[in-house]
Design goal:
The protein has 388 residues and is α/β, with parallel strands linked by helices. Helices cover 42% and strands 14% of the residues. The strands form 3 sheets. It has a 7-stranded mixed beta sheet with strand order 2-8-7-6-5-3-4, sandwiched between helices. The chain has a 3-stranded antiparallel beta sheet with strand order 9-12-11. Strands 1-10 form a two-stranded parallel ribbon. The longest helix is centred in the last third of the chain and has 23 residues. It starts with 13 loop residues before the first helix and ends in a 5-residue tail after the last helix.
Length: 388
């Protein structure tokens, strides 16, 4: 049987290859410190679990939902007002089964074959996958250390900017951990207006930021609602990754286009999950702020501890990830990743899997408590892998 040529656009899934090696080492009795995938190890708050459980006891909750509950979109709108100071109409909000699914459907709703989409390099691989599924072509804009891993809009060729249908921005950024201030968001709004390009902001990590104040929303920037949409996820803030709760919100015509596409392939989010989302959005946020402090402790344990053993890893500014340069005697991040796993039992992700400018780095997910991170660093030091 011949399959769609669309599948030829995708390479080997890097996490699968790493997992094969991990399983083989564990079968030998080796202990592995797994910091490769960004799945939080914290528990979801009890009031969220209770809301899902209570809803699931109602037989009516097991029917097609067919739509987002009005209480849900209102809860998102109210949350955005109290959390970010953004006023948004509930009809400019829709649910997605995670930002991963949302990115694919957004590209299919906005792009035709051969269209151009601006993507950060390095970036969350799903951004590229969504674009390729739509038949569009990615145009990369690099995130460089000398520019604090932020978009350098002046480096984007004018011809490329004018062709682009939309531009994806992720701040705080996965995998590089950069954080934007108001000036960056204002520059994005000006860029979008100058070149008639939509800004798509992934706002997954605004609650994991290591400044005194928590992160914000791109949509809080004057003019952003006219030129942009935002993906807002509950996964990392509330530790509900498996429930796949995300929202697309912002410019209404864009949201409506994605909603129309979704109506052809979906019957709505499971009602108990909608009720869990409502509980998260309307409930207390003390656990979210406490968790931000716990992530900072992990960031400090990893970055500070690495510097103590001679590995110069800069402090991440936000997200649940650390972007670490590989030792100078290595030239390929995949080689270093495999050696680190084999020799030290520490599993991370090669930077090359996030785009060409990711080469020379590896990404660590802060999914282990500080004590285990220190144990992992001790294993790294003992392995001698940092020395030529």
């Amino acid at each position: 049987m011949e399959f769609s040529r669309r599948l030829n656009r995708f390479g080997e899934e890097i996490f699968a290859a790493l997992n094969v090696k991990k399983l083989a080492l564990e079968a030998e009795g080796r202990h592995i410190w797994n910091m490769s995938i960004g799945t939080p190890d914290f528990e979801p708050p009890m009031h969220i679990r209770r809301a899902l459980f209570d809803s699931a006891q109602d037989p009516a909750s097991w029917k097609y939902s067919l739509r987002d509950l009005p209480e849900l979109t209102q809860a998102v709108a109210s949350y955005y007002l109290r959390r970010y100071g953004v006023t948004i109409s509930p009809d400019a909000i829709m649910s997605c089964y995670g930002t991963q699914e949302g990115c694919g459907h957004l590209a299919m709703a906005l792009c035709d074959e051969g269209d151009t989409v601006l993507l950060p390099d390095p970036c969350y691989p799903v951004f590229k996958a969504g674009v390729l599924l739509s038949g569009a072509e990615p145009a990369w804009y690099p995130l460089r250390a000398e520019h604090d891993f932020l978009p350098c809009l002046s480096d984007i060729p004018e011809e490329t900017a004018r062709k682009a249908r939309f531009m994806i921005v992720s701040l705080p950024a996965n995998p590089v951990g950069s954080v934007a201030g108001p000036d960056t968001y204002r520059e994005l709004v000006e860029f979008a207006k100058a070149y008639d390009v939509l800004i798509v902001h992934d706002n997954a990590y605004s609650d994991i930021i290591y400044t005194e104040e928590p992160g914000g929303s791109f949509l809080a920037t004057p003019g952003a609602m006219d030129v942009g949409v935002e993906f807002f996820s509950l996964s990392k803030s509330f530790n509900v990754t498996g429930a796949r709760i995300s929202f697309l919100l912002g410019r209404k015509d864009v949201v409506d286009a994605v909603r129309l596409l979704r109506s052809q392939i979906d019957f709505g989010m499971f009602l108990p999950i909608q009720h869990a989302a409502i509980a998260a959005l309307t409930g207390p946020l003390e656990s979210v702020e406490k968790q931000r402090g716990l992530y900072r402790e992990r960031r400090d344990a990893l970055c500070g501890g690495a510097r103590e053993i001679g590995w110069n890893i800069p402090d991440a500014k936000g997200s649940m990830f650390v972007w670490a340069p590989i030792p100078a005697h290595y030239t390929r991040s995949m080689d270093f990743c495999m050696d680190l796993l084999e020799r030290a039992g520490v599993l991370c992700t090669p930077g090359s899997s996030f785009g060409p400018h990711g080469e020379g780095y590896v990404r660590f997910a802060l999914v282990l408590p500080p004590e285990q991170i220190r144990q992992a660093l001790s294993a790294v030091e003992k392995s001698g892998i940092l020395k030529p």
